Amino acid sequence: MKDIPAYMLDVGRAARAASRVIAAASSATKTNALLAMAEALDAARGALVEANALDLEAARSDGLAQPLLDRLILDDRTIDRMIEGVREVVALPDPVGAIRGLDYRPSGLQVGRMRVPLGVIGIIYESRPNVTIDAASLCLKSGNACILRGGSEAIRSNQALAACIEQGLVAAELPVGAVHLVQTADRAAVGELLKLTEYVDVLVPRGGKGLIERVATSSIPVIKHLEGVCHVYIDDSADPDMAVAIAVNSKTEKYAVCNALETLLVSAAMAPTVLPVLAARFGQAGVELRGCEKTCAVLPDIGAANEEDWTTEYLGPILAIRTVAGLDEAIEHINTYGSQHTDVIVGSDYANNRRFLKEVDSASVMVNTSTQFADGFEFGLGAEIGISTDKLHVRGPVGLEGLTTEKFVVLGNGEIRHR
Amino acid sequence: MKDIPAYMLDVGRAARAASRVIAAASSATKTNALLAMAEALDAARGALVEANALDLEAARSDGLAQPLLDRLILDDRTIDRMIEGVREVVALPDPVGAIRGLDYRPSGLQVGRMRVPLGVIGIIYESRPNVTIDAASLCLKSGNACILRGGSEAIRSNQALAACIEQGLVAAELPVGAVHLVQTADRAAVGELLKLTEYVDVLVPRGGKGLIERVATSSIPVIKHLEGVCHVYIDDSADPDMAVAIAVNSKTEKYAVCNALETLLVSAAMAPTVLPVLAARFGQAGVELRGCEKTCAVLPDIGAANEEDWTTEYLGPILAIRTVAGLDEAIEHINTYGSQHTDVIVGSDYANNRRFLKEVDSASVMVNTSTQFADGFEFGLGAEIGISTDKLHVRGPVGLEGLTTEKFVVLGNGEIRHR
């Protein structure tokens, strides 16, 4: 492709035009498109696997690491999951057009708020081709047009998936511009996408920190998920068995996820009771522990944590542990070093739990449960497009509602204003 | 002041620290601070007028234009209004800490959302010193710390007002860093404020387009109000008398406001009936009309509108008029040329009104009433800090709720996750 700026400008314009149509589309039309998309995926299994084989071959000869190769694979199982995902989105309630709080005002006007699509969403992601289908279905259901920019190593797989999406749109007589997969692997296309301030309403980066930071330089608003430095705080009042079970599950249920525990905080009163049990459990699980001075006094065999450990998202079998005086120090630690993602208190003291919920400034604050529950499905949002660590617009798991906004609707009967 | 970067960094740090305290403050504490602030304003009338006189004198010798001088004045009447404004904020319900939708999930967890402050809000405004008090009271009530940067021409008035705010904070034993007025008129301070990404959660510019565009370059999220190119569309089905009354009120009730009518759209079927009446009424009011070709065919005495008129916010007694085929063309015009602020349909056709509400992509969409009603008080939000033309986070008038966000709260009883 020669003229990438001109190409991306065309993509932006087409998406804006399509966004008007999809925003006004009925629930039934959107459902038809999604169901046709699911059928097209089922019918295209052969073509999908073939396109994917070419991507895999190229990736292997480029020397892509095995974990990245694994994420790139499209096979019958991953295709089944994509189809199931589309059907789950079909089953979610359509958020568009719902009006709330249409109250009468002293002027005689009725004023309420209507939920509406954001418009055009630009999604920039790496490796996993299933994001193409997840993102397209969530955007479609929420009445948004989208511009999808997948990883260059997955471009053939993504093109084959985009063909299925297009079949779905055509079947429902929706404009094909409503979901556009960027057709070039040239990285310059991302730079151009970040400049489409007139045509793109929000950007959603899904990938590593480098990608997210690059996208955040755009003057288009970004729904971003940076890292998850999640905490469990074991309060004086905790039940020791529950505390151990929650800490172990929060760390070990899955390591490479943003809602995994990274720093465990233990109140000084509980440290002698729970730390030895935790050390044994984490030892069995193969988790390396790094403790503050007080923690190392109880567990002399573990390594020392330094300042950097408190802000590190290990995404692996390493856990930092700090012994704190109590609730105040725990809240202070989390608000200072955490990433405002997901934090847990384990405790039975009513006032402490209530203060933790109010004062910890994170997207998800939890009492007596595992950090690993922080996701859209568990929270009842259905499929999620990411977990936002931003504060504005949407915080925590982002589902259909996060891809919409509200406008005011005002119903009158000829009222005019006299100030 | 010598080292402005160091000063602003200190201001940011202090605001972040104070934000934790104010976020956790009880409603009663915040009310005490606000009431003490109102009393301090009342007691400081002499000092306020004196400080203001110095600002006015300097502004006159700098040759500030009369309308700007008028906006700068602090007198008994404007002080009364400020005090009244603070008391109105006291009377509003405290949004902080409210939990909604705490539903049980299949996992046994209860998941809901708690409304919480944004943290630190940076407000950058021009001329009017009353914004100092309005902004401080709204931020305080919503549990946010704020950094206020007023116009350099109002700095003495603002410092006198800030002294009253400080008295309020001290009386309620809240940290004085919770409301910080920038103490230098040097424009470099604004540049430094825009860089405080770690300490400021959102920026709210209030002023001209130049200011707003400058603030929007920050990588801190911005709640911005750009312009209001508002429309009234008179549908085929409109009652002609109602249509005329609404169009005239929307334009003439106040000219220099963002919710004033700037472009009138008239369906071709209604044009011969309403245009002559409107021309007479607008003629009496001294409003200059500029029409499209079809409009000029009915009103041969008015000037011709060009492409630029459709995107112009006149903020004065000029009105652009376009005759459109009907609803489709009206929606198309508004979504193409409008500023997504406030748009009205006048009509009695149920389906047309419903389509207009859904398909016009603006912060406020209205049926059969005046654009001039688009404000926080009329919408029931109480005092507003501005009217957002952004789509993300908050759209339309921004009151206390717009200065807050929601986090997830999760209540468990030892649940752990098995994927």
Number of individual domains of chain A? 2
So what's the overall shape of chain A?
Answer: globular
End-to-end separation of chain A: 58 Å
CATH topology of the largest domain in chain A: Aldehyde Dehydrogenase, Chain A, domain 1
Strand tally of chain A: 16
Largest sheet entry of chain A? 7 strands, parallel
The CATH superfamily of the largest domain in chain A is identified as Aldehyde Dehydrogenase, Chain A, domain 1
CATH architecture name of the largest domain in chain A: 3-Layer(aba) Sandwich
Summarize model confidence as the mean pLDDT of chain A.
Answer: 95
Biggest sheet strand line-up of chain A: 10-9-11-8-7-12-13
Multimeric state? homodimer
Helix % of chain A is: 40-55%
Tell me the Rg of chain A in angstroms: 24 Å
Structural class of chain A comes to alpha/beta
Topology:
Two copies of one chain form a homodimer.
Chain A: H1 4-24, H2 27-43, H3 45-61, H4 66-72, H5 76-91, E1 99-104, E2 110-117, E3 120-125, H6 130-141, E4 145-149, H7 155-171, E5 179-181, H8 188-193, E6 202-206, H9 209-215, E7 230-234, H10 240-252, E8 261-267, H11 271-285, E9 288-291, H12 293-298, E10 303-304, E11 318-324, H13 327-337, E12 342-346, H14 350-359, E13 364-369, E14 386-388, E15 396-398, E16 404-415
Parallel strand pairs in A: 3-4, 3-6, 4-5, 7-8, 7-12, 8-11, 9-10, 9-11, 12-13
Antiparallel strand pairs in A: 1-2, 2-16, 14-15
Note down, in words, how this protein is organized.
The structure is a homodimer of 419-residue chains. Chain A is of the alpha/beta class and 419 residues long. Chain A has two domains: 4-223 and 398-410, 3-Layer(aba) Sandwich (Aldehyde Dehydrogenase, Chain A, domain 1); 230-373, Aldehyde Dehydrogenase, Chain A, domain 2, CATH 3.40.309. Chain A has 14 helices and 16 strands. In chain A, the strands form four sheets. The first copy, chain A, has a seven-stranded parallel β-sheet with strand order 10-9-11-8-7-12-13, with helices on both faces. Chain A has a four-stranded parallel β-sheet with strand order 5-4-3-6, sandwiched between helices. In chain A, helix 2 crosses helix 7. The longest helix of chain A is centred in the N-terminal third of the chain and has 21 residues, at 4-24. The radius of gyration of chain A is 24 Å and the shape is globular. Strand 13 of chain A pairs parallel with strand 16 of chain B.
